[in-house]
Amino acid sequence: MRQDNFRQPDGQKLGWFIFECVMAVLYLLFGFLFLFSSLFDNIIQGGLRIALGIVLGLYGIFRIFRAIKKIVQKNN
Q1: Is 25 within 8 Å of 60 (Cβ atoms)?
Q2: Less CB within 10 Å around the terminal CB: N or C of the chain?
């Protein structure tokens, strides 16, 4: 089986990809924590906590889609 178009990623690119994925998951995690947990009730008050949770969650989703798009473009 020939794999002329398949290239192994170098260490730096793989490292950045893993970093992007971890950060996207962390943004999602903190977004859900702000929205659905009472962990930050004493630190950040109601409306601001909900707004911050929504923004972080949406940004995490955006980062995940951007990483997926980057993978699809490199495989084509």
Answers
A1: yes
A2: N
What's the Cα-to-Cα distance from 62 to each of 16, 23, 45, rounded to whole Å? 17, 11, 26
> What's the rounded Cα separation, in Å, for the pair 28 and 9?
26
Tens place of pLDDT per residue across the chain (76 aa): 455 555 666 778 778 888 988 999 999 999 999 988 888 778 888 889 999 999 999 999 999 999 888 878 877 6
CB atoms within 10 A of CB 14: 11
Residue length of the chain: 76
Q: What three-state secondary structure class fits 65?
A: helix
pTM: 0.75
Sequence-ordered list of residues with C-beta below 8 angstroms from that of 39, at least 6 positions apart, any chain: 33
